[in-house]
Structures are given as structure tokens and as C-alpha cells.
Amino acid sequence: MTDSRKLLLASIHDVGPRAEAQVDQLADLLSSLLGGPNFAMLVVPDHWGEAPLAGNAAYQAKLRHWADQGIEMFVHGWFHKDLAQHSGMAAFKAKHMTASEGEFLGLSQREAAQRMADGRKLIEDIIGRETAGFIAPAWLYGDGARAALAEAGFPLAEDHMRVWRPTTGEVLARGPVVTWASRTKGRQLSSRFFAGLARHGLHGLDVARIAVHPGDTTVPALLDSIRATYASFARRRRAGRYGELLHKA
């Protein structure tokens, strides 16, 4: 039975022309599972420096169409690629939590602020409205990124364990995001295992978050797990918008 007081926040990461076919596939999948375009998209302005949104009129039109449908658009870094040298805990995160994708883990405050501002302006100019917030690639934020984010004016931000209001630090939702990893067999198995646990153990959360990536479409077993997980949560709660958290606070 659906509990309208509880939210399901669904998202597609790494949206852009670099993975256009896979993003289209995921958008169709989530629309069918959630009864329409009830999800967010995390948009990368120039994925790995290979797929710039600037100048790509066809993809810009696609983003505007999605935004017009009501899909929330988040700024998702700039390049997504992490080119920094890390030490200590940051080196551990860069090695074990992502594959050179944590762009904002090692940036200075100045560089992080510039990329945030540039990404926001580009995407907002394309979609003709404000972006929903900022989410760092791989959900990883270094000290410079956190400092920049606090001053950037984004309404929302998200990491693995929470959604918060960057201007005040107020936490708006807690709980692990359910996601999948396609990079290795071991990561595929572990992410499927966690998703299975989530389908039984996370229904008590007021806000459940489930995120998919273009690479998930390359592994049929992951797609099966994604379908089962979204269906399980959608039966018990309504698919909503991240922006609703601002009004609940």
C-alpha cells in the first residue's frame, strides 16, 4: 500500500551526449516504473572533456524537453573526471569509491566555485529555469568543494548518506542512496546484494533515494535488480521531487 507521506527520489546520473543512448534507455525505464517522468537528472557539462553541452543544439533541446516535463536538473560537476593527486583519506576514496570520477574531491575552493558557477549558468541557460541543486560526481566532496558549495547558493546538495541545504548545512534527508556499480564483477555482485537488502530493510526511511548510471544498462543482471528495486519502493511510497524537501524543512 502506498504511503503518500514517504518519498521516493529517483535519479539518473551522468546525463549528457557522451552516454546519450544509455540515458535515453534509463529515462524510458524509470518513466515506465514510476508512472511518468518522476525523477531527477544529473547533468555533466562536458563529460571527460569529450562531450560538451555547449554548441550541441540537439542535446540542449532534449534537456529543455525533459525539464519542461518536470524532470529536476542538477549540476553534476563539470568534467566528472578527477585529475588531482590525493593523499590520506582522499586517496583511499579516490581509489576505492570511484574510478577517477571524483572530480570535486581534490579541487581548491576557488576552482570548485568556478566550475560550479560555470556549470550552473550553462545548464540554466539551456533549460530556461533554475537548477535543482549541485551533486558532486561520485558523491565525493573535498574540503575545497564543501567550502565553495556553502557559498554557491544552490538550494540542495546530496552525498551517499544525506541530502542537505548547502547555505545552512541543514540536513533534509538521511539514509544511504541505493545505487549499482558495473565496473567489475565483484562490484556488480556487491551492489546487487545491497539493493536486495534495501528492498527489505530501507522501507522505514521517510525518504528513499535510488540512483542509476549509464553503465548499468550494459549488465542485464543490474537492470533486473534496478527494476525489482524501483518496483519494490514505488509500491510503498510515491515518487516525488527533491525540491519537496525544501518545503518540508
Automatic annotation (TrEMBL):
GO term, biological process aspect, one: carbohydrate metabolic process
Record InterPro entries: DUF2334, Glyco_hydro/deAcase_b/a-brl
Pfam families: DUF2334
Protein name, UniProt field: DUF2334 domain-containing protein
